[in-house]
DNA sequence: CTTCTAACA
DNA sequence: TGTTAGAA
């Protein structure tokens, strides 16, 4: 099987954690984690009666995020709401990039995101150039840029 | 030793 | 929420 750039870049999933691990990583008690679950705020991968819960990495991020807002003084409900908004935006961004990111190239001597053909003529591609902290877009013919091998 | 559920502080 | 008991 070949190396999947998008998968490796846009999904740091596949890792599984136990409730104790998440508790240690986030500072949220196992009691709280089970309570948040009952409230419908987090969802274990598996939830068979009497058996240990398993969580994915996304849940770790969610718990850390909720914890962050709780520490800021938000109520649990408000914290979850905040995280939900962020999660939705991240999901949209993720969906877009997963579809549009074709690879990494060199444009103007800098790293650039290959965002694919800009129009239906399949002549020019849109590149997102990254020059240090500065970024800008550029339309170029694919043969005008140097592609960086992936994987 | 860790996690689960349920109940009490 | 913390803690605890007894079972798994």
Automatic annotation (TrEMBL):
Keyword list, A-Z: DNA-binding, Repressor, Transcription, Transcription regulation
UniProt entry tagged with the keyword Transcription: yes
PROSITE patterns associated with the record: HTH_MERR_2
InterPro entries: DNA-bd_dom_put_sf, MerR-type_HTH_dom, MerR_fam
Superkingdom of this protein's organism: Bacteria
GO molecular-function terms, A-Z: DNA binding; DNA-binding transcription factor activity
Pfam families per UniProt: MerR_1
Protein name per Swiss-Prot or TrEMBL: Uncharacterized protein
Organism lineage: Bacteria, Bacillati, Bacillota, Bacilli, Lactobacillales
């Amino acid at each position: 099987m070949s190396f999947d750039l998008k998968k490796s870049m846009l999904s740091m999933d596949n890792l599984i954690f136990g409730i104790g691990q998440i508790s240690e990583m986030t500072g949220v008690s196992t009691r709280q984690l089970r309570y948040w679950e009952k409230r419908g705020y987090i969802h274990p991968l598996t939830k068979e009666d009497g058996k240990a819960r398993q969580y994915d990495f996304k849940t770790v991020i969610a718990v850390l995020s909720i914890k962050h807002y709780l520490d800021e003084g938000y109520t649990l409900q408000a914290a979850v709401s905040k995280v939900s908004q962020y999660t939705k935006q991240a999901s949209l961004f993720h969906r877009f990039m997963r579809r549009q990111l074709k690879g990494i190239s060199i444009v103007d001597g800098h790293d650039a995101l290959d965002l694919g053909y800009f129009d239906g003529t399949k002549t020019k591609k849109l590149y997102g150039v990254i020059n240090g902290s500065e970024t800008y877009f550029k339309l170029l013919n694919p043969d005008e840029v140097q592609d960086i091998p992936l994987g």
